[in-house]
């Protein structure tokens, strides 16, 4: 092989890598349309989509500096995933958002809901994070609080948690018998809560809760959810140790396959849980708000199925960049507030609270259309 052929080969490698990455990213755009029970690898590809999009953006920048036409290949991959991008970035910075509405009753028609995976309040014996969260939610004039992993401990029991959130006089907290072996969830509200229903899932420590919020002559059906985790954070170090401890290609393949199997099993569980939530939302006689920690990206089957029947609050009234998981370079949006089309969204945001959790809370102000 001559010198010119070698130079040509090296020049073609970046182009081939650019095209290959763009094609994979375009395929990943369809990952949410595949039920994990019928597809082993597409959900995993969807999980990798934030990293794929970031790589395409960096490559586009490189081609721009090189002033080469290949810039259009990664740009095409980004445009192909416009639906995902709009689920994490809303560019309408000129949108008019009214100031918060708050009163001692529902006469003005506005309702403000917050959802927050509180991570068992950090297991703190003094309840510091719990008290800080309550103070923050009071300042934000939140009407309804939906918590996931709302656990207590012997030093700061549920009675103490209930006292901290006494500003919200109505509460649904599952009994110890109903949540044994399950990550606890709870709802606190300034308005009456009726028709509570605790929803457990087979072979899962996760759960959901349904109840109705009575707002004068209006009623809203609330679905508070904590869906099956991906277990990436819990298993990452184990997978890394498995890969670092061997140079055997077969063993490395076994570790990778084991990771994919673990992810796939959790994808399937989460899809089944999503189908249950979807049916509950479709059966509701009232406008629906479905919120919580869904452990799912906007590229997922869960997001696709729920956004098919409900609106994503961030898309209806959010702005700027949206993430809710504090780690993984803040690339992951996995907590949501979905709502019926009969509900008008006015404000949606996720403040960066460095307290007890690896999640940020999500807050949304809304009003039932008349």
UniProtKB/TrEMBL annotation:
Q: Which GO terms describe its biological process?
A: GPI anchor biosynthetic process
Give the Gene Ontology MF terms in alphabetical order.
endonuclease activity; exonuclease activity
Which stretches are annotated as coiled coil? none
Q: Which GO terms describe its cellular component?
A: membrane
User: Which keywords are on file for this protein?
Assistant: Endonuclease, Exonuclease, Hydrolase, Membrane, Nuclease, Transmembrane, Transmembrane helix
Query: InterPro entries given for it?
Result: Endo/exonu/phosph_ase_sf, Endo/exonuclease/phosphatase, GPI-anchor_lipid_remodeler
From the Swiss-Prot or TrEMBL record, give the protein name: Endonuclease/Exonuclease/phosphatase family protein
Q: Which species does the entry assign this protein to? A: Bacteroides stercorirosoris
């Amino acid at each position: 092989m001559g010198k010119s052929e070698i130079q040509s080969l090296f020049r073609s490698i970046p182009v081939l890598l650019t095209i290959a990455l763009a094609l994979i990213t375009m395929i990943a755009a369809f990952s949410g349309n595949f039920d994990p029970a019928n597809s082993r690898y597409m959900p995993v590809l969807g999980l990798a989509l934030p990293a794929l999009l970031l790589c395409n953006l960096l490559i586009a920048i490189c081609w721009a500096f090189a002033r080469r036409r290949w810039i259009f290949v990664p740009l095409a991959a980004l445009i192909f995933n416009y639906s995902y991008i709009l689920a994490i970035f809303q560019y309408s910075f000129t949108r008019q958002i009214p100031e918060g509405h708050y009163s001692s009753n529902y006469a003005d028609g506005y309702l403000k809901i917050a959802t927050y995976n509180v991570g068992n309040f950090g297991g703190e014996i003094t309840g510091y994070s719990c008290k800080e969260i309550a103070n923050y939610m009071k300042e934000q004039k939140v009407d309804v609080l939906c918590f996931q992993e709302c656990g207590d401990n012997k030093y700061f029991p549920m009675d103490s948690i209930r006292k901290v959130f006494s500003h919200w006089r109505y509460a649904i907290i599952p009994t110890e018998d109903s949540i044994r072996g399950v990550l606890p969830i709870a709802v606190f509200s300034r308005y009456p809560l009726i028709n509570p229903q605790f929803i457990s899932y087979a072979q899962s420590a996760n759960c959901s809760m349904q109840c109705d919020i009575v707002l004068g002559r209006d009623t809203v059906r609330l679905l508070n959810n904590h869906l099956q985790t991906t277990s990436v954070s819990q298993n990452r170090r184990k997978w890394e140790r498995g890969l670092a401890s061997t140079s055997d290609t077969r063993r490395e393949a076994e570790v990778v396959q084991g990771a994919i199997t673990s992810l796939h099993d959790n994808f399937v569980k989460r899809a089944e849980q999503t189908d249950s939530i979807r049916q509950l939302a479709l059966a509701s006689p009232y406008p629906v708000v479905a919120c919580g920690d869904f452990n799912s990206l906007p590229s997922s089957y869960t997001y696709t199925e729920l956004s098919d029947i409900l609106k994503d609050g961030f898309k209806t009234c959010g702005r700027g960049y949206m993430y809710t998981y504090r780690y993984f370079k803040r690339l992951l949006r996995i907590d949501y507030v979905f709502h019926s089309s009969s509900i008008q969204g006015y404000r949606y945001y996720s403040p960066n609270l460095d307290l007890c959790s690896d999640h940020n809370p999500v807050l949304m102000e809304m009003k039932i259309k008349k």
